[in-house]
Design a protein that fits this description.
3-stranded antiparallel beta sheet, Arc Repressor Mutant, subunit A, 6-stranded parallel beta sheet, 11 strands, 2 domains
Length: 328
């Protein structure tokens, strides 16, 4: 089933759609979408990748790759390709993509897309003060450096990975979020469900409640089967956040990946399952991000809190061997 583009930003959905989640409105994350065309065209189905652009673009906007289901608003859409793919320009410009022609000076058939995309990703941080995320659609591992750069400046970094690549596991550990190649290709058939104001709503009939057997009067039941006169419900003790355990997790991850700087989203990703880290549906123990980092850094001398750029606050990891060498 294919989605049709009516005009930029407006899509026409088919009359029937597979069962799934409906379209809801809530705050969206402001993202920049940077696309390495040649890498995706060759690795993700070639012509079908272009024919189903509306489907996978909606899939990205609806946050179907995100475990948290956060929707995206693409404040910048940019595609990078060589002159041989110029015949696809209209299909992308109609969808509000900015097209970049990439050429190499020394070799006729080479492409400078890697360099151009990296430069644009760094520039967008200064051009768009409301930017919250950078998504790079390319299975090239060279982009891990620029994603790390945006993460250190308090931006969410999203990359793409082929599960069969040797570096896949390491790549997932470094970037905030990854888009898996099989999931992206499956999005060629993605069609959102029309609900509420947009069309008929599928309502499932509630299952009948199980019938309960009548219970004998309290006075006729044996004492072992009677309820206590004054039952006291044991309240579950509130979970407290352990900054020392968090520091051990962060140091172990830094040792494994070789990272020196760990940004906000990476730290949140590492600690999201720790008891007491999520309180009232909010991370950082329902407190300020900087306070949580200070508590974690105080538990291990290898960790410190530093400011990067004009708005980035990160954890810095210095291994014990590195500190000893610096002291010497």
């Amino acid at each position: 089933m294919q989605v049709a583009l009516l005009r930029p930003g407006v899509y026409v959905l088919p009359r029937t759609a597979p069962a799934g989640e409906g379209i809801l409105f809530w705050s969206r994350r402001k993202s920049a979408l940077l696309l390495d065309f040649e890498n995706l065209y060759r690795g993700c189905g070639q012509r079908r990748f272009v024919d189903r652009i509306d489907n996978w673009l909606l899939w990205l906007e609806h946050g179907k790759f995100d475990p948290d289901g956060v929707r995206r608003e693409f404040v910048s859409r940019q595609v990078f390709w060589v002159p041989s793919y110029e015949q696809h320009r209209l299909e992308f410009t109609r969808r509000r993509f900015e097209v970049h022609m990439c050429r190499a000076i020394r070799k006729e058939k080479s492409s400078s897309a890697d360099f151009d995309l990296t430069i644009r990703a760094a520039e967008l941080r200064h051009e768009r003060r409301d930017l919250e995320e950078v998504i790079i659609l390319s299975m090239d591992s060279d982009f891990v450096s620029v994603l790390t750069h945006v993460q250190l400046h308090d931006l969410h970094g999203v990359g793409m990975v082929d599960p069969e690549a040797k570096f896949a596991a390491s790549y997932r550990n470094i970037v905030d979020l990854t888009i898996e190649k099989p999931d992206f290709m499956a999005a060629y058939d993605y069609v959102p469900v029309k609900r509420g104001w947009f069309g008929p709503r599928l309502v499932r009939a509630p299952e009948p409640a199980p019938q309960q057997q009548p219970r004998a009067p309290e006075s006729t039941r044996p004492p072992s089967d009677r309820a206590p006169a004054n039952p006291k419900r044991a309240a579950a003790p509130p979970q407290t956040f352990d900054p020392a355990a968090a520091a051990r997790i962060i140091c172990a991850h830094a040792e494994e990946t070789g990272l020196v700087y760990l940004g906000r989203e990476l730290v949140r990703k590492l600690l999201r399952n720790q008891p007491g880290f999520i309180v009232n549906s909010r991370p950082w123990s329902d407190g300020p991000y900087r306070v949580a980092l200070d508590r974690i850094g105080a538990c291990d001398s290898r960790l410190s809190v530093e400011k990067v750029g004009d708005r980035g606050i990160v954890l810095t990891y210095r291994s014990a061997s590195g500190s000893a060498a610096a002291a010497a």
